[in-house]
Specification:
Helix content: under 10%
Distance between the termini: 48 Å
Strand content: 25-35%
Radius of gyration: 33 Å
Number of helices: 6
Shape: globular
Structural class: mainly beta
């Protein structure tokens, strides 16, 4: 189905980036690795960024990047971020580019899962070391330090401790690459806890190129030790810094002045080790070993080798990585939860993060305004956000400015009120609020009104997960649901809440623990395991409410919460019920997607019930075995048409889940966190690439297996609103296509003849036509009844009319043909918009012809402003008359030019020459600066006046048209008289 593609609608602001790099000899060139959006490259100091991993990488999560110091065209990238959050995306090995990021090849280590560091030998690009953290969710023998001596063709594990201890960092000695250092880290996550540290770990050193290693420990913590990051500086090769997670007072920044043999604790400044499982990054200035930087929630700098610290301002907090140019210590690139930013003045000013469409979105909701807007919580954004599906107006600062804050905070969701999109119900880590766009204020109505941070989960009255669901009843917009371990309901927008369920979670006591162990306590609600994660009421039957918990159980009520029934499918215990989708066609039918990769179970789980959960069927045939599913939705128009969003892309089923196939199309590889089908569009949120829309999916809704055996199938198009806005080019983000109607057609066999597509008005007149022939043949003509003075118009060539087998899409800009012009490339352009009404699309190929009708609808905003359909029809009529006038004036000018070319020098023809030249001067504006516009330009001016907006033409427009028509008629008569009543063609 090559004709069906997705488009990004932003936001264009950056998401999490945990690794960056550059090269001392390529100023302005940098790489940024995002945690769900892939690998990006800039060659202009961060003014623009381009993704370089799409189509090559099997995982969008980047853990480390390095350009070979001896050859910057050689780049290594390790997948799997080192910031081990609960929603961290697993990697798929190491990739290498030999051409500066244009192409990539997987070079192994696919099971390392998460990469802490990559370093390339300073003298040869073939020697490379990788620090592998390993699987974040289970013991993993692929942890360790790896070395390749042949550019990744072969790997050897040169340092391994055990299957629970990986390596978070690796550094070469700046003066002797035979000496190297590595930081070992005991790291593992559970859905209910974070494990960072243990009795083993620490710093290891090799002096023989990695062949042998020994632990260095003099002066370092001897008990519990957690994540470690290392830093060296060429300004003092013997100096080595280590940022070490350890119990309070024991951890901090350590310094060695003898290549790691002896250590001194130089700082216990607490912010340096803020949430070390997530941060813990130290860097040293390559030109000044006393100049040290630490990445944490804030960005810290010490100019005295770590004894005292000052905070630096970056465009975004939550800092992860830094690269400093060895030849220019004022030139840095820094990574944080907002993307990457470049400085040329040592951090005084930074490049923008509004050019990196790598947003991590937890979900998507849509409102019912026109055009509709999309809503979500964006990871580490101040509030939830909303962006439009199409531009509601022309923004002065470009389309990246079309983004709105809508209350709550990064976790979301943000749910617009049905019937009133100015009101948004939002969540911030379990805190319910009502945001009003008109006032810009947010009213808070927290269930229980208690701070969830820092608690042992079973000590809380209400356990709210950071991403707590909000759902509005499809039957009564006054009913809003919110969930802790209980289901809560409000009828007055949160002012009063009632609890309508018992605890609907598994609530295992062994999982109700303080998260963050054994060293650093970290209780933000993200690891509260026994909470409700999904709530949905059936749109077919009021009071049928489905609830899923993040620790496994699914419950349903059929009487609005009076009684509940546990209906969990027979499957392994635990797992997050990420999505429940009650069928929009059958009351007792529902689908559930259950995510278990955080329990080290990477299988896809989609279940279907047709009897209110009494029994379930696993429907995953066709999905890869290691492709966890986050969301599933049934199409509201066609029963059994399903869409699934997985950790690694989109899938579709036409037979109610019995068979699945990839539906990735042009979508970049990234987790799909949520799906909505709204106003005929397929809408996605992603954990790394923002929102995406596939416009007008009516062909999918009409598709049948028998279509494949048909030579030609034209699908009925969706009705389309007439809109006026300026679209932008494909590839720009956000992307808004110009106003258009799309037509989908399927070719079962490659046709022998050309494809022809025509648009007919309600009177059966062909108003536009295109052909796949290039150049187009003038045997394909549009009837002269459209007002063209020449009597016909040639159908234009369009490369959208594909002749290959498959489903193809053609777009009509909703416009008539513009005026004839002697310059072929300008001819027929700029016609007026077609008026609202009924139209027909007709396609012809190999003797077959098929037609489908559709409606052009009035923009409801224009209608609300008082413009009627008759006003637009009047404008169309007048505009077409002006088009005909413009064509006739151009043709008259051509006739005059042709006659002038036939005149030979001589006194007997001078009078005729002057008469023709005088006529031409009335038609064509004399070249020069601010010359008086003549007839052709005056006609075009009037045409442009009417094409600015949807309106009833004013009296002056009609009067001016009459004047211009009379002017042209006078010139035509003058030419006829000069020719003796004959017209020369």
């Amino acid at each position: 189905m090559p004709g069906l593609t997705y488009r990004s609608v932003g936001p264009s602001r950056g998401g999490r980036s945990t690794t960056v790099t550059g090269h001392e000899n390529l100023r302005g060139t940098f790489y940024m690795g995002s945690t769900g959006g892939g690998l990006w490259k800039t060659i202009d100091y961060g003014n623009t960024w381009k993704n370089v991993s799409d189509g090559f990488f099997a995982s969008p999560s980047i853990g480390a990047i390095r350009m070979a110091p001896s050859n910057p065209l050689v780049v290594y990238a390790g997948t799997g971020s080192d910031g081990l959050r609960s929603n961290v995306i697993s990697g798929k090995g190491i990739y290498k580019s030999a051409d500066g990021g244009r192409t990539w090849k997987n070079i192994g280590l696919e099971k390392t899962a998460h990469i802490g560091a990559i370093e390339v030998h300073p003298s040869t690009p073939d020697i490379v070391f990788v620090a592998a953290i390993g699987n974040a969710f289970a013991p993993n023998p692929d942890r360790g330090i790896y070395r390749s001596r042949n550019g990744g063709a072969n790997w050897e594990k040169v340092l391994y401790l055990n299957d629970t201890i990986g390596f978070s960092d690796f550094e070469f000695h700046p003066g002797n690459p035979e000496i190297m250092y590595a930081g070992a880290w005991r790291a593992e996550r559970k859905p209910w806890s974070i494990i960072s540290g243990g009795r083993e770990g620490g710093i290891y050193k090799s002096t023989d190129g990695g062949n042998s290693w020994r632990k260095v420990f003099k002066g370092l913590p001897m008990g519990l030790i957690g994540k470690i990051d290392l830093a060296v500086s060429a300004a003092d090769p013997k100096r080595l810094y280590a940022l070490v997670e350890a119990p309070q007072g024991e951890g901090g920044l350590f310094r060695s002045n003898d290549e790691g043999e002896n250590w001194t604790q130089v700082s216990t400044f607490k912010p340096l080790l803020d949430r070390p499982f997530y941060y813990c990054n130290v860097h040293a200035n390559p030109q000044n070993a006393d100049d040290v930087f630490v990445m944490a929630t804030q960005f810290w700098r010490s100019r005295n080798a770590g004894r005292s610290w000052t905070m630096l301002q970056t465009p975004h907090g939550d800092d992860h990585d830094l690269w400093i140019n060895p030849k220019d210590s004022l030139n840095w690139i820094e990574a944080n939860d907002g993307g990457a930013n470049v400085t040329l003045d040592g951090g005084l000013t930074w490049s923008t993060q509004l050019n990196q469409p790598t947003s991590e979105l937890y979900q998507v909701e849509v409102d019912d305004q026109f055009p509709y807007w999309l809503y979500a919580g964006q990871q580490d954004n101040n509030t939830t956000i909303s962006v439009p599906s199409l531009p509601p107006y022309d923004p002065p600062n470009g389309y990246i400015g079309l983004m709105m804050a809508t209350g709550g905070c990064e976790t979301g969701p943000a749910v617009p009120k049905p019937g009133n999109p100015d009101v948004v119900y939002a969540n911030c880590k379990g805190c319910f609020s009502v945001f009003n766009k008109k006032t810009g204020q947010e009213q808070n109505y927290f269930v229980g009104a208690g701070n969830i941070y820092g608690h042992k989960p079973n000590d809380l009255k209400f356990r709210f997960q950071r991403v707590s669901p909000i759902h509005v009843s499809p039957h009564n917009p006054k009913i809003v649901y919110h969930a802790s371990q209980y289901l809560h309901r409000t009828l007055d927008e949160g002012k009063t809440w009632e609890t309508i369920s018992p605890d609907l979670t598994a609530n295992e006591p062994s999982k109700q623990v303080i998260s963050g162990s054994p060293i650093t306590r970290d209780v933000t609600g993200e690891e509260y395991y026994s909470t409700i994660y999904e709530v949905r009421e059936s749109s077919k039957q009021a009071g049928v409410i489905w609830v899923g918990a993040n620790d496994g159980p699914i419950h349903v009520t059929r009487n609005s919460g009076k009684t509940w029934q546990k209906v969990t499918p027979k499957m392994p215990e635990g797992g997050r019920v990420d999505c429940i989708d009650p069928s929009p066609h059958v009351a007792g039918k529902a689908y559930a997607a259950i995510l278990r990769y955080q329990l080290n179970d990477w299988q896809p789980y989609i279940y279907k019930t047709e009897n209110y959960g009494a029994s379930w069927q696993l429907i995953t045939k066709g999905l890869p075995a290691d492709c966890p599913v986050r969301t599933v939705r049934e199409d509201p128009t066609r029963s059994g048409l399903l869409y699934a969003g997985t950790e690694y892309g989109m899938y579709i089923s036409f037979d109610d889940g019995q068979n699945w196939q990839s539906f990735q199309q042009n979508l970049p590889l990234t987790p799909i966190t949520d799906i909505k089908i709204h106003q005929g569009d397929l809408i996605l949120s992603t954990m790394g690439r923002g929102f995406w829309i596939m416009d007008k999916i009516s062909a999918l809704q009409q598709w049948k297996p028998t279509n494949q055996s048909q030579a030609l199938q034209l699908f009925k198009p969706q009705d389309q609103y007439r809109m006026r806005y300026a679209g932008n080019r494909r590839g720009e983000e956000p992307h808004y296509p110009a106003p258009q109607v799309v037509f989908d057609y399927y070719l079962g066999i490659a046709p022998q003849s050309e494809v022809v597509l025509e648009i007919l008005n309600a009177q059966g007149q062909v108003i536009r036509a295109w052909t796949s022939a290039n150049p187009s043949k003038d045997t394909l003509r549009i009837d002269g009844s459209s007002g063209m003075a020449s009597g016909f118009r040639v159908a234009g060539f369009s490369d959208q009319l594909r002749k290959t087998v498959g489903l193809h899409r053609f777009a009509w800009d909703m416009r008539h043909l513009g005026p004839w012009d002697p310059q072929g490339v300008r001819s027929s352009r700029g016609g007026p918009m077609a008026a609202p009404g009924t139209y027909t699309v007709r396609i012809k190929v190999d003797g077959q012809s098929q037609s489908q009708s559709f409606q052009l609808l009035m923009d409801p905003r224009i209608q609300k402003a008082g413009v009627s359909a008759k006003d637009l029809l009047d404008a169309e009529t007048l505009s077409l008359q002006i088009i005909a006038l413009a064509s006739a004036s151009q043709q008259l000018n051509k006739q005059i030019k042709d006659q002038l070319a036939l005149l030979k020098p001589g006194s007997d023809q001078d009078k005729q020459r002057k008469m023709l030249e005088d006529l031409q001067k009335e038609l064509v504006t004399t070249e020069g600066r601010y010359m008086q516009p003549r007839l052709i330009d005056q006609i075009n001016y009037l045409r442009g006046m009417l094409d600015q907006g949807d309106q009833k033409p004013g009296k002056d427009a009609y009067d001016r048209y009459a004047e211009l028509k009379a002017w042209l008629s006078r010139l035509e008569n003058s030419l006829k008289q000069a020719d003796g009543g004959k017209r020369v063609d």
